[in-house]
Design goal:
Strand content: 5-15%
CATH topology of the largest domain: Rossmann fold
Number of domains: 2
Radius of gyration: 25 Å
Structural class: alpha/beta
CATH superfamily of the largest domain: NAD(P)-binding Rossmann-like Domain
CATH architecture of the largest domain: 3-Layer(aba) Sandwich
Organism: Streptomyces citrinus
Helix content: 25-40%
Distance between the termini: 58 Å
Number of strands: 12
Number of helices: 13
Oligomer: single chain
Order of helices and strands: EHHEHEHEHEHHEHEHEHEHEHEEH
Largest sheet: 7 strands, parallel
CATH class of the largest domain: Alpha Beta
Shape: elongated
Protein name: Hydroxyacid dehydrogenase
Length: 356
């Protein structure tokens, strides 16, 4: 506290701290997901960080209200259900400088024209990787324990299993597993880290990763044929691109040893469904499938009723209270943009073709 004998200290320009910049931001996503993506604490941070332009959320870019919002917009904060952002939309947004996506992939809605105009792009794929990797770890542990076929037997017999049950399998349990991870994506890298407490040997296939980088991750880099032929568990974390479609074709599925567990939380088209069906119907291998091709499978498809197949409705990604992680990451990115510092999760044009 200043006494009456002290002279007042005058503020100088150097002492003044300018208020943080609040970029004009438009929310573009399905209105039904907004409260999940931005729960109250995240929404409060968003409103402190950005000047949110009305309307509260845009689900289309054709109305007069949408055109008015785009005209003043500096940042598009997008999410699930965002309409396509093409050249025509970009023409309506001459001040647009950043697209920050509060979800996973931007490939489904964002035109390359955004990059040609120097617009910064960011994604919350790293946040969505958390629940997918956790789901994958759970699938590996339960699959290694043969929980799915044994549960089926238990429900059917109402008695505990006998020593002869599942004798076709050459292993049972999690100790000393060899896990083959296909794709060093955000999810694939997190799965490798989560596997460390299992005392597992981790093999990694990714043509864009060096031996040294794989070693730093805690994995041994190998070719795909070796991975599928020597792994107890094969887990897929690659994007759906022209070069990855049917990555596990009939020949590579034939390379898998009896009892191999296949986990797919990535994309259905990575696997030849017809070839996989033969192996699963015969009981040669097991599978946990969060995605299929087609998705969903036809109602009369044999995979629905197999005891060695566990099918889930594309739910490994953020669900319920996990969705707020995506919004929190997006707001963090928006705050970095407002401060003029590099974003932590940019989506670069040169990486676009090989990411999910």
């Amino acid at each position: 506290m200043r006494t009456t004998d002290e002279a007042p200290v005058e503020a100088t320009a150097a002492d003044a701290t300018p208020p943080p910049r609040r970029p004009r931001t438009v929310l573009a996503m399905d209105s039904s997901v907004v409260d999940d993506v931005f729960p109250p604490s995240v929404r409060a941070r968003l409103e402190e960080t950005a000047d949110i332009q009305p309307p509260a959320v845009i689900g289309e870019f054709t109305s007069r209200e949408a055109h008015s919002a785009l005209a003043e917009c500096e940042v598009l904060l997008t999410g699930w259900g965002c309409p396509p952002i093409d050249r025509a939309v970009l023409d309506q947004a001459p001040r647009l400088r950043a697209v920050i996506h509060a979800a996973g992939t931007v490939k489904t809605f964002l035109s390359r024209d955004a990059y040609e105009r120097g617009i910064t792009v960011s994604s919350a794929a790293a946040a969505n990787a958390v629940p997918v990797a956790e789901f994958t770890l759970a699938a590996i542990i339960l699959g290694a324990k043969r929980a799915f076929p044994l549960s089926h037997l238990f429900r059917t017999r109402r008695t505990h299993r006998t020593a002869d049950d599942l004798d076709r399998h050459h292993w049972l349990g999690t100790r000393g597993l060899t896990v083959g991870v296909v794709g060093a994506s955000h999810i694939g890298r997190r799965v490798v880290r989560l596997l460390r407490p299992l005392d597992a040997e981790v093999l990694l296939y990714d043509p864009y990763v060096s031996d040294a980088e794989a070693e730093l991750l805690g994995a041994t880099r190998t070719d795909l044929d070796t991975l599928v032929a020597t792994s107890d568990v094969v887990t897929l974390h690659a994007p759906d691109t022209a070069e990855t479609r049917r990555l596990l074709d009939a020949r590579r599925l034939d390379l898998m040893r009896p009892g191999t567990l296949l986990v797919n939380t990535a994309r259905g088209p990575l696997v030849d469904t017809a070839a996989l069906t033969g192996h699963l119907v015969s009981g040669r291998i097991d599978a946990v499938l969060d995605v299929t091709d087609p998705e969903p499978l036809p109602a009369d498809h044999p995979l629905w009723d197999l005891p060695n197949v566990f099918i889930t409705p594309h739910m490994a990604g953020a669900q319920g209270n996990e969705v707020g992680r995506l919004g929190a990451l997006a707001v963090d990115e928006l705050a970095r943009y407002a401060r003029g510092v590099p974003l932590n999760h940019p989506v670069l044009l040169e990486d676009l073709e090989r990411i999910a």
